[in-house]
Amino acid sequence: SACYEKFEEIQRSEKVDKESINHPRSIFKRLIKFLKDKPIGLVTKKDIRGFLNSGNCKETTKRSYLRNLNAFFNKLKREGLSADNPCEGIKISSVTKISKGYEAWELYVFLNECLEQKKFRTLTASVFSAFFGLRLKESTGLLWENMPDIENSKDGFIDVQVEIAKTKRRRTIYISGVGKSWLRIIRRFASAG
Description:
By secondary structure, this protein is mainly alpha-helical. The protein has helices at 2-13, 18-35, 45-54, 59-78, 104-116, 120-132, 136-141, 177-192; strands spanning 156-160, 171-175. The N and C termini lie far apart (73 Å).
């Protein structure tokens, strides 16, 4: 398409790296195939939404497509090759669908079984994962010494050290709510022996 060739020409003149030119090309080819013979200047929001929902794509892929198409249409608009950007105002849902999760009652039963069997390490790791979003390696690497005074403080923070963090960056996790209550229970039972 002449519009996409113009887009690539603009990208090259702005000294955009090769990958940033090649990646949108594959997305654009899919869009052209989806639109069949419809001219780019007549593409609507409905067309863009239809394109984004046409494949069996994950939400992150749809966001990537939308981001690239948005850049494409913004440049066309700036160059006077398109009256508007049909991507403007389109939002991709950030809801993540979990194929097999646990119901709240199943988690409660599991946590109680760990407590009864005195599996405090498993219990603690599970609480950190379920209530605070820590990864397994992070939650099993935490030590009680690194935790705030859960019994006496209103709220607290836990530092996930660089050595155990997946991202190799220190993270601070806010401790509150039901998860904090579970940590109090674990600490009481663990100290009682």
